[in-house]
Known about the structure:
By secondary structure, the chain is mostly helical. The chain has helices at about 10-30, 35-50, 60-75, 90-110, 140-150, 170-185, 190, 225-235, 245-255, 265-285, 295-305, 310-320, 325-330, 335-345, and strands at about 200, 205-210, 215-220.
Amino acid sequence: xxxxxxxxxxxxxxxxxxxxxxxxxxxxxxxxxxxxxxxxxxxxxxxxxxxxxxxxxxxxxxxxxxxxxxxxxxxxxxxxxxxxxxxxxxxxxxxxxxxxxxxxxxxxxxxxxxxxxxxxxxxxxxxxxxxxxxxxxxxxxxxxxxxxxxxxxxxxxxxxxxxxxxxxxxxxxxxxxxxxxxxxxxxxxxxxxxxxxxxxxxxxxxxxxxxxxxxxxxxxxxxxxxxxxxxxxxxxxxxxxxxxxxxxxxxxxxxxxxxxxxxxxxxxxxxxxxxxxxxxxxxxxxxxxxxxxxxxxxxxxxxxxxxxxxxxxxxxxxxxxxxxxxxxxxxxxxxxxxxxxxxxxxxxxxxxxxxxxxxxxxxxx
Length: 365
């Protein structure tokens, strides 16, 4: 039996630095994303702020963790401006992420002897996300998705929007990204880090090589319509500016999706593009308009595929999920779907009344 590590009296600030070094190493080998490392760093900065970095890691108690969770939760959430917030301070989802980041840190600390036992065992303030997703993150109906594809990218060359900055105007790019998000359901960071060489053509079929979470790769075939959108975009893809720093220039040259300045598109750029698309739908078809995030389009792709009868295993593979249970969480209700399912149930055929004039609506009492 392997002996447990010897306890060490390590200051919290030093323990956090060591932990983030190990996380950075996992990013280097492709086991974690840089965005994940950034989230850990931001969350653990909140832990240091609440407990003071000179405290010894092994002296931290469950009450200390509760104090840190409460203090973090009461802080201002500066990531997005939300019309409807969960309440004062940060959203419950952000607090939950903080709690999980701290839990992973203390699990690592226990493994290396910085704490003898994780204080998370005695923490009581565990944030829990209740209810449905925020409306902006839930799936669109098929009509809303159609309206987004029809109006979201604007009118070619999408230069008629006075409020849109010139470097953001690219109808072909936006049309392609919206189509990929709504049909294939990639993660927004998978769009951002896509490279030109990830489009693989051969034997009459073009595939998109998607690098997903943890560096896992999946190859997704593109339809003829999608290939047409790809070619339309590539024919007018902006060239990288030679004024960019050497590293940025090398990255921009590889990037599939670029801004008007020729730099690699970022996840935030995609978010802004989706916001502009939603505004265009609101102007063209107000009845189909609603607030959306890129994640809502991933939900939409999964929901519509499952509602159309796709095997959940196929949908799971397309989305890059490690297991089917993750895919099932993406299934949102489509308006009218339950009514159609009940109305077409074969067991009801014999039970339906055959008298003429029978109404499909219940009689009023």
